[in-house]
Design a protein that fits this description.
By secondary structure, this protein is of the alpha/beta class. It has 8 helices and 8 strands, in the order βαβαβαβαβαβαβαβα. β4, α4 and β5 form a beta-alpha-beta unit.
Length: about 240
């Protein structure tokens, strides 16, 4: 179960969303204690904006790694919104003074191949972010870097709980063999829980956290990432048992 700590959310989403390195580290530590085995985080500037800044990234990684076991991998985003322009993203990656264990690359974004190559050159594993509703799957299938990624993040962007499962099936079909790489399937907002349960039925890895949803399966507002991880682990396991 991967924890997606905060995503592109801001203080407008409520105080429950961790933004500072210290708040992120506290939230990650609680979620790992609740069962999270991997971490995906968006480092934030002091004003709460996603960034690839080496200074901010180093502070965030240092704070997290001081609170969780070394066996828990920590990854970051390289989303285009965090650093517009492929060349600028590559330059940022080459300037990092502290390295995450992995980083996600959205394959539909311009410069994805160059960003992924820069990460691999630095010894950072790549999560290939393949979003539904984009050309990401087709681009990834043709990518020479496909066999070298750590895993594929199959990201269902359909927020409609009634349609998200169908969108997930369609995305998985477009991915095909995914170069033989492991697939982590997840949804967002209203689609987060239906897609998580589908991942359980299919025996696929998944993720949950305040990036993907602010609400628990019953619709109540989540109090923390740990609460979401607890619920996510329970829901995934129940769906898996139902499949078996």
């Amino acid at each position: 179960m991967q924890l997606c700590v905060n995503g592109a959310r801001t203080s407008a989403d409520g105080a429950v969303v961790p933004l500072s390195p210290e708040a992120v580290a506290d939230s990650v530590a609680e979620a790992v204690a609740a069962g999270a085995t991997d971490v995906h985080v968006h480092p934030k500037t002091p004003c709460g904006r996603d960034t690839l800044s080496p200074r901010v990234l180093a502070a965030t990684l240092e704070a997290i790694r001081a609170r969780v076991p070394a066996s828990v991998p920590v990854g970051v985003t390289t989303g285009a919104w965090a650093e517009p322009g492929p060349a600028a993203r590559v330059a940022r990656i080459r300037s990092w003074t502290a390295l995450p264990d992995h980083a996600s690359v959205n394959w539909h974004e311009p410069g994805a191949e160059e960003v992924a190559a820069a990460l691999i050159e630095r010894g950072v594993a790549v999560e290939a972010g393949i979003w539904s509703g984009t050309e990401g799957a087709a681009l990834f299938r043709r990518s020479p870097l496909g066999p070298r990624v750590l895993r594929v993040l199959a990201e269902v962007t359909d927020p409609d709980p009634a349609a998200a499962r169908d969108s997930a099936h369609a995305l998985l079909a477009r991915l095909g063999t995914a170069h033989g790489r492991p697939v982590l399937l997840h949804g967002e907002e209203g689609g987060a829980w239906p897609v998580l349960r589908l991942a359980g039925r299919l025996g696929l890895a998944t993720r949950i956290g305040l990036e993907d949803t602010l609400r628990l399966p019953d619709g109540c507002r989540a109090a923390s990432n740990a609460e979401l991880v607890t619920a996510g682990t329970r829901e995934w396991a129940a769906a898996r048992r139902g499949h078996d």
